[in-house]
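Quick one, tokens below. Sequence please?
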């Protein structure tokens, strides 16, 4: 069974930076999966903010984070990262990693990012 666990959230002032980490474990975790970072703000639907293919050569960013966030991965460590710069209050959300498209049984607890307005 695959488990994904997110780390690195916190409270940061607008304009600040955070680096989120996602650790994958389990016998069937595959470095060939496309991985994504998703977020869910209060009273909003969960949305994809960034995605990276298996070798890191193909990335996707939502318009709301393009130019500010960078997704990366380290397959040898089953890890995916999200560097978030120039954070804005509207980035406040719980952030999750998952495959892209997401698998329902892979959702972890997420990590809370709060950027006060």
């Amino acid at each position: 069974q695959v488990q994904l666990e997110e780390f690195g959230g916190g409270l940061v002032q607008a304009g600040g930076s955070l680096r989120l980490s996602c650790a994958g474990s389990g016998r069937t975790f595959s470095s060939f999966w496309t991985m994504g970072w998703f977020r869910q703000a209060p009273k909003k639907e969960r949305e994809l903010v960034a995605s990276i293919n298996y070798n890191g050569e193909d990335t996707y960013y939502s318009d709301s984070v393009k130019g500010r966030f960078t997704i990366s991965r380290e397959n040898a460590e089953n890890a995916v990262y999200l560097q978030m710069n120039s954070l804005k209050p509207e980035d406040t959300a719980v952030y999750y990693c998952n495959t892209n498209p997401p698998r329902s049984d892979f959702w972890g607890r997420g990590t809370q990012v709060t950027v006060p307005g």
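The chain has a mean pLDDT of 95. Strands lie at 3-7, 10-11, 18-25, 35-40, 47-52, 59-61, 69-74, 79-84, 93-99, 111-114.
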